[in-house]
Amino acid sequence: MKQQIAALYCRLSKSDEAKNESNSIANQKSILEKTAMAKGYDHIQFFVDDGYSGTGFERPALQQLEDAIRSGCICAVLVKDVSRLGRDYLKIGYYIENFFPKYNVRFLSVSGDIDSRTNSTDFLPLYSVMDEWYAKDISRKMRMMYQSKAVTGTPIGRPVYGYRKTSDNPKCWEPDPEAAPVVQKIYQLALFGYGVEQIAALLEKERVLTPIYYCLSKGYIYEEKVRNGNPYKWACSTVIQILERQEYCGDIINLKTYSHSYKDKKRYPNNRENMIILKNVHEPIIERFLWDYIQQKRNHHNVKKRAKKQTLFSGFLRCGDCGSNMHYHFNQKNPNIEYYSCSNYVGDRGTCPNTHYVRLDFLTGEISSELNCFIQKAKSNWSAFSKGIAEIKEIEGTQQSKFLSAVYRANSDRQDELLILISKLYEDKTKGEIDDETFVLLANSFKKEREQISKRNQTIQEQLQANQHRLDGLNYFQQLIAAQTEIAELTRDDLGRFVDWIDIYPAERNGKEYEQKHRIHYKFIGALEVNKM
Length: 533
What we know:
Blueprint: E1 5-12, H1 14-19, H2 25-38, E2 44-50, H3 60-70, E3 74-79, H4 82-85, H5 89-102, E4 106-109, E5 114-115, H6 124-151, E6 163-165, E7 173-175, H7 180-191, H8 196-205, H9 211-217, H10 236-244, E8 252-254, E9 257-258, E10 268-269, E11 276-278, H11 288-300, E12 317-319, E13 326-330, E14 338-342, E15 358-359, H12 360-380, H13 382-393, H14 398-430, H15 436-482, H16 492-498, E16 499-504, E17 508-510, E18 513-515, E19 518-522, E20 526-527
Parallel strand pairs: 1-2, 1-3, 3-4, 12-16
Antiparallel strand pairs: 4-5, 6-7, 8-11, 9-10, 13-14, 14-15, 16-19, 17-18, 19-20
Helix pairs in contact: 5-6, 8-10, 12-13, 14-15
């Protein structure tokens, strides 16, 4: 016959620990052990769930206890109070009225002097309801606290990979000197045309610790389960998350998830309009114009099945007529003849009337020559070159931006002035100096003017931000140009550094020869005809 055991169940949630020392695991163990001995139980076993809420019942120790009861090993269950078992009166009722009696298990709660053997469980439903009310009230207060923190710019949760808490203020973030360069490298690789799989493979090759293992190496608290594996094996999903995090611009994004109820421990993604987004709170790791550019590129990119062979121009060529990607082919009889054609060609059951056929060797020479010409002109006289780009692309200069900023400030001053006038109107009305009709007429006029100014200022702000992004992009492009030497042999890295995509048009007859037209779209700049600059 199996030796029956008295199970001493202890539970402590984070909120309980912060509120009351008497609920500590050590204190519960001491009380339960004394009670068990007093009740004549010599064989005892502790089941402890430390850091688990009472509203959920998927707790490791509690499940072990249930298994032990089903196996017939347990004769009694002791808890300090009913709330340690849980804070859901329906579930507690199931345990007390059904589960424990089914297996002939005695239930004792030290606080409240509840003992199922003496039938002193009459007030148990009331205790359970009060415990659930308590859990609901705690949940409501926690939500209010998180809401309050969210709107004040206090980040909720641990810093994202690339940041760490500042030593003087744990509520603030600063770039992590070891992890931030990794984030910057990931963005630079994405800018140069590397896919997430390529980025993950490169980081693994260079033996860069994944975010989880990096946190573990630094002793940061990390609750996720870490299985034994390769600490340098980056997942594509991790790279994607890093490329999508707006926090790297210096922003705080709070309330990104929510739960349906305090009983539901699962977190659900929040709609963006319900998030709290505060900009420029901490030092950025990635410039905002670069982050926006990467998001635009990722949103535009169509995720399709990868070609078995990645050639020089894979992913860079588009049909100049329909905008579809160009697919790589080679001549079946002569594999050395490699070429690209429109993936949407009507002959291949598409809708584009032309194949836009272009040979790889021809295109390599043309693009290499044009890029070298572009780099040479830009490096020889960047001031004149950038001025020409600004004129072509209608990028407003610093003076124009200063003018728009001055207009914005003047509009804001006028809004403040109108608010004062509306307040004065109200005072005049209460004093009887103006009648109701005049008050309504003037107040509505001032309010309408304020609304019109607000719309104008919003437009100006969008213009200033867009112009600043273009200027930042142009300055960044200048840095790429300055670091570039003449391209002797065109590579994918060269294309990724300067080129967004290349439009390919049908070859046109020019006398006896055919002329193949193309148009390069440069990063941050767009399409340019270098020969005309």
